[in-house]
Amino acid sequence: MIRFLEAWTPRRWALAGLGFCVLMMGVALFLEHVMGLEPCPLCIFQRVAVLATALVLGLAALHGPRGRGGAVYGLLGLVTVAAGIGLAWRHLWLQSLPPSEVPSCGPGLDYMLEILPLADVLNMVLVGSGECAEVGARLLGLSLPGWTLIGFLLLALAPLGLLHASLKARSRQAVA
Question: Is 131 within a domain?
Fold first, then answer.
């Protein structure tokens, strides 16, 4: 299996990661529109992190980078995945708080985006609100942010693979 993955090109890693982003967004949209689970502000920001990662990996797949270019895409992908990991971790932390320590519910995300600067909206969302602390559903004992965290950790393999494949290709070019 390791030899199989070693043979992957940067483009293949980018396409695999992009496919996983599509899967993550498909699950999120299914839960919202079919199962009726309304996303909280942290859920929406986690979706933004998935979309940002999809954008980076999509551009990498189109470009088909070699060497340094692939490393840049890999690093950018790791930054967007790390943002998603941080958001999911924060969401899990809010859900772990005792009810007495849960922040009160704030205004909706749409309203905040209309009246506040983006930096203030980010601050308010990351501080959290009561709706982000609610556990809407569990699957195999994990809440949705727990599954999202696992998804982001798995998704991190794509930019890591892209980075590895690009650096390996670059080292081959240096030897030749």
Answer: yes
